[in-house]
């Protein structure tokens, strides 16, 4: 009889009342109680040898006949299932096909097998080792690969840190250059603004100078034109007079005509002098002075 595992909560219907173990080849008496076939047969034999009278059920004492035992196949199946459940509680898997512990490992199929599986044609030519041995072997391989992967991770982390540091250093350099460029152009903007104000002021002065010279010259020309008109009118009137009147003060009239002609000639000469760049053309004179100033100013 197979011994039941101690301290296991078993269904009482799966135990034999005689041997107190799982039922083996269970049979049912006429009274309805179940026993192992071997246990109840041996019980009957002992009672007959000792001439203990009629055969009775060990539980209810109901009379029974030796040949009236009925095999209980349904109960036998239930008992087998209970055995598997109890075995599985021990932490080991059972082979579904052979109902044995899966204690071996097939390297080719990469799965656990039982002793019966190892001897079968399916695994006969395969490399089969103990489960613990295979676990230790593959655990060593996993540890070796794990060590390599950890070193690779450390290398990548170090490279990542170096890359980040290098990137930060480059970003600092670019930020410094950006600040330099911004400051340089800020100064350049200020310089250009100052130059703009300076040049516009000079242009304004030149414009005022041009306007002043123009007004002065036009005023002088206007005075000269007025004098010429009066003299022309006087000369025209004089030329129309009779001889006696024409000859009166004619020399004075001619002298005044010469004076005005001289004045006009001097004005023309003075006007001709305006063709010098600085006097006649203030803008050109300003441009010339500005170029000379820029050459003299250090960069």
Please, could you describe this protein's structure?
This protein is mainly α and 299 residues long. Helices cover 64% and strands 6% of the residues. It has helices at 37-49, 73-88, 115-119, 131-240, 243-247, 250-272, 277-280, 282-296; strands at 26-28, 34-36, 70-71, 104-106, 111-113, 128-130. It has a 3-stranded antiparallel beta sheet. The chain has a 3-stranded antiparallel beta sheet with strand order 5-4-6. A hairpin with a 4-residue loop joins strand 4 (104-106) and strand 5. It is rod-shaped.
Number of strand segments: 6
Structure classification? mainly alpha
The gross shape turns out to be rod-shaped
Order of helices and strands: EEHEHEEHEHHHHH
Q: How many individual helices?
A: 8
The largest beta-sheet arranges its strands as 2-1-3
β content, as a range? 5-15%
CA radius of gyration is 68 Å
Q: What is the makeup of the main sheet?
A: 3 strands, antiparallel
Distance between the termini: 115 Å
Round the mean pLDDT to the nearest integer and report it: 81
User: Percent helix among the residues?
Assistant: 55-70%
Give the low-confidence spans: 1-9, 273-280
Domain B box-type: 90-131
Keywords: Coiled coil, Metal-binding, Zinc, Zinc-finger
Region (Disordered): 268-299
Biased composition (Basic and acidic residues): 284-299
Essential attributes:
single chain; mainly alpha; 3-stranded antiparallel β-sheet; 6 strands; 64% helix; 6% strand; rod-shaped; disordered N terminus
Which helices and strands, and how do they pair?
Layout: E1 26-28, E2 34-36, H1 37-49, E3 70-71, H2 73-88, E4 104-106, E5 111-113, H3 115-119, E6 128-130, H4 131-240, H5 243-247, H6 250-272, H7 277-280, H8 282-296
């Amino acid at each position: 009889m197979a011994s039941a595992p101690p301290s296991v909560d078993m269904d009482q219907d799966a135990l034999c009342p005689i041997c107190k173990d799982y039922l083996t080849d269970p049979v049912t008496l006429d009274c309805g109680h179940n026993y192992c076939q071997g246990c109840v047969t041996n019980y009957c034999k002992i009672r007959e040898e000792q001439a203990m009278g009629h055969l009775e059920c060990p539980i209810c004492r109901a009379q029974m006949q030796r040949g009236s035992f009925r095999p209980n196949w349904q109960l036998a199946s239930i008992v087998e299932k209970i055995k598997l459940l109890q075995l599985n509680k021990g932490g080991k898997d059972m082979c579904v096909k052979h109902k044995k512990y899966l204690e071996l490992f097939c390297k080719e199929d990469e799965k656990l097998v039982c002793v019966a599986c190892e001897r079968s044609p399916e695994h006969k030519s395969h490399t089969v080792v103990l489960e613990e041995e295979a676990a230790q072997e593959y655990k060593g391989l996993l540890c070796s690969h794990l060590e390599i992967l950890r070193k690779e991770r450390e290398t990548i982390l170090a490279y990542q840190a170096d890359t980040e540091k290098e990137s930060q250093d480059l970003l600092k350099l670019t930020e410094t250059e950006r600040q330099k460029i911004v400051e340089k152009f800020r100064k350049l903007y200020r310089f250009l603004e100052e130059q703009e104000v300076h040049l516009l002021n000079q242009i304004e002065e030149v414009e005022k100078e041009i306007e002043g010279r123009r007004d002065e010259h036009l005023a002088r020309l206007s005075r000269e034109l007025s004098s010429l008109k009066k003299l022309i009118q006087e000369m025209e009137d004089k030329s129309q007079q009779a001889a006696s009147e024409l000859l009166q003060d004619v020399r004075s009239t001619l002298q005044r005509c010469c004076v005005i002609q001289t004045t006009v000639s001097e004005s023309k000469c003075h006007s001709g002098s305006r063709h010098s760049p600085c006097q006649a053309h203030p803008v050109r004179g300003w441009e010339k002075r500005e170029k000379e100033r820029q050459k003299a100013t250090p960069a």
